[in-house]
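Section 3.1 - Work completed
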Amino acid sequence: MHYRPLWLALGIIYIGLILYGSLARVPDIDIPFNHTDKLIHFLMYFILAGWFIQLYKRLSERVVILCNAILLGFIIEYLQGLTGYRSFDYLDALANSIGAGSAFLLAGTQLSLLLKRFDGWLYTRSNGK
């Protein structure tokens, strides 16, 4: 990849956004569907693991990414329980883990090439080729 440092930096920024969004005080929102937040947790960690999995090719590196994403989800849930205004939720941690695991399972598919293709397209456009 031509812009790998940029993609890594954006991934780290995304981790920061997950941390902030997970630990910030937010108003209670009445959502008409049960467990909608679980879908949000799934998607956040699917994107997180999927993003970094695209940046590493070896299976061992991808396993480390998967484990770190799952660990991050549990650590954040634990920290939420310490805040006094958020709570630890095993189902949130499970949704996080399933999201990361789903991205890991898709690592060998065409989906894992999206960032590489975009990187190549961007490089070609910026170099007039």
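Second construct:
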Amino acid sequence: MIQGPAGAIDMALDLPAEASKGVVVIAHPHPLFGGTLDNKVVQTLARAFTQCGWTAVRFNFRGVGGSAGTHDDGRGELDDLLAVVRHAAPTGRLALAGFSFGAFVTSNAFATLHAERELDALVLVGVAASRFNVAQIPTEARPKTLVIHGEQDDTVPLTAALDWARPQILPVTVVPGVGHFFHGQLPLLKSLVVRHLSHGQN
């Protein structure tokens, strides 16, 4: 637990096998639809980063699990994420990752933090572009950004993710035949993230 802007924030830490390269903060899907830090996609992202030597920080947005407060449509959740970053990685190497609603919040956190410090990697899965105002990725940060989407996502249509990515010329990795929660394809999701981090020498 740490103190956040709305009170306590519930966090979980996943440690790499050897000395940590840095910290990744991972944001979970929509709190009002069962999203928590224990979400399978969030856990998969954490395992991918720890395999690559990163310390992974998962946390519950306000009003979820042990976290105080109530849902705030992304505004307060952005404050929560930034509070977790300030606590878990005030200095040193930092990466951000998020799934669905968490990807929307993460994009805005990245936009905020990019002006203040260097970020090593950004991973957005099932980005909720049809439902929220997902921030654009700064041009110089796009090579370190991985966007993954399921072809048959019925929560956030692939077309919405492409419409968001198109003006930025931001590549989207599409997993054929897969829905929003990547059922049956979590190992593939993990391998895509590991490959991105390895190729980026992160």
